[in-house]
Design a protein that fits this description.
- By secondary structure, the protein is of the alpha/beta class.
- The protein folds into 2 domains: 2-100 and 311-329, NAD(P)-binding Rossmann-like Domain (Rossmann fold, 3-Layer(aba) Sandwich); 102-302, 3-Layer(aba) Sandwich (Rossmann fold).
- It has helices spanning 10-23, 60-63, 84-89, 102-117, 120-130, 155-166, 180-186, 193-199, 219-222, 242-250, 272-277, 285-295, 311-329; strands at residues 2-5, 28-31, 49-52, 71-74, 93-95, 147-151, 170-174, 189-190, 202-205, 230-233, 256-259, 300-302.
């Protein structure tokens, strides 16, 4: 079957080719560096299978230009870049990668925790910039015996709990759908969110972004947290109300924050757009400025949405995608989105 892979890096092409050879899949494959949307259509429109990443926009305009298309394999968990409902009207199946970086993101979350609680980045920065080996301002604290509040005990949250137990931390958790069997195995307690925030020395977020979790951490809920507590967010930026977080950090109420995601990360670094085109209504300039304030705080670590980014996690995406295609060709499609 004619198959096109979009937004593919050279190493990914090599990896896919090797895996296709291992699995014995007979595909007529082509690899494109570019994404797919109405302005970036492939020269050959008779493609039957496409694999895309989140930079592509697969809407009615695109689908109508691919008359032979039967299957879309997105190399992502999210699929809001695909008009799934319209694809269904054309009998086009869509599969995703439901999970790929549970341990990867959990490890990164603990990396942020350790960097903050032991001031690792601050120490490295001090040595590099000033040459000073003084430890006077670098005193941290042990994780052993501290209480970690895990908000969301899905795949990633469970890995965080396993790691926390290795550090001999006390774990408490909030989840609207508690996993009682996992709870018994790893001996932690579920509480309402308010109680988790009140008891935790460190709170780490592992919930999806949706209407119910928008600004889950806000001015009111932050005030429930322990004075001096730390907040870790490797989930989604809008789960945290940025202005409230900045205020709590500036006035010393919170001890620090580790943020791999920001509420308005899509426009950070693109302030020139505000000058050229004015301020888009959907963005909150106060939030953008607050995000910049976070960058300058010594007790805040901001990373560029990088928690998922390991070779192993990216390879798992490709492996799952190949398995999805294999299932489709065998009339046993996997990981179909609804």
């Amino acid at each position: 079957m004619k198959t096109l892979f979009f937004s593919i890096k050279p190493w990914e092409k090599e990896y896919i080719e090797a895996k296709l050879k291992e699995t014995g899949l007979n595909l007529e494959t082509e690899y494109l560096n570019d994404h797919l949307d109405k302005d970036h259509l492939p020269p050959n429109r008779e493609v039957e299978i496409i694999s895309v990443f989140i930079g592509s926009v697969i809407n009615k305009e695109v689908l109508d230009q691919l008359p032979s298309l039967k299957y879309i394999a997105t190399r992502s968990t999210g699929y809001d870049h695909i008009d799934v409902n319209y694809a269904k009207t054309k009998n086009i199946l869509v599969s995703n990668v439901p999970s790929y970086g549970e341990n990867t993101v959990a490890e990164f979350a603990f990396g942020l925790i350790l960097n903050l609680t032991r001031k690792i980045f601050q120490g490295c920065d001090q040595v590099k910039k000033t040459g000073s080996f003084s430890v006077e301002s670098l005193q941290g604290f042990d994780l052993k015996g501290k209480t970690l509040g895990v908000v969301g005990t899905g795949r990633i949250g469970k890995h965080v709990i396993r790691m926390a137990k290795g550090f001999e931390m006390k774990v408490i958790a909030y989840d609207p759908f508690p996993d009682r069997e996992f709870q018994k195995t790893f001996e932690y307690e579920y509480f309402p969110l308010e109680e988790v925030l009140k008891q935790s020395d460190i709170v780490t977020l592992h919930v999806p972004y949706m209407k119910e979790t928008h600004h889950l951490i806000n001015a009111q809920t932050i005030q429930l947290m322990k004075k001096g507590a730390y907040l870790i967010n490797t989930a989604r930026g809008p789960i945290v109300e940025t202005e409230a977080l900045v205020k709590a950090l500036k006035n010393g109420y919170l001890g620090g924050a580790g943020l791999d995601v920001l509420e308005e990360e899509g426009i950070i670094g693109e302030e020139v757009e505000l000058i050229l085109n004015g301020h888009p209504e959907e963005h909150n300039l106060k939030t953008v400025l607050a995000n910049h304030a976070l960058f300058d705080m010594p007790n805040v670590l901001v990373t560029p949405h990088n928690a998922f980014n390991t070779r192993e996690a990216l390879e798992k995406i490709l492996i799952t995608t190949i398995e999805n295609i294999k299932g489709f060709l065998a009339n046993n499609p996997k990981n179909l989105v609804k």
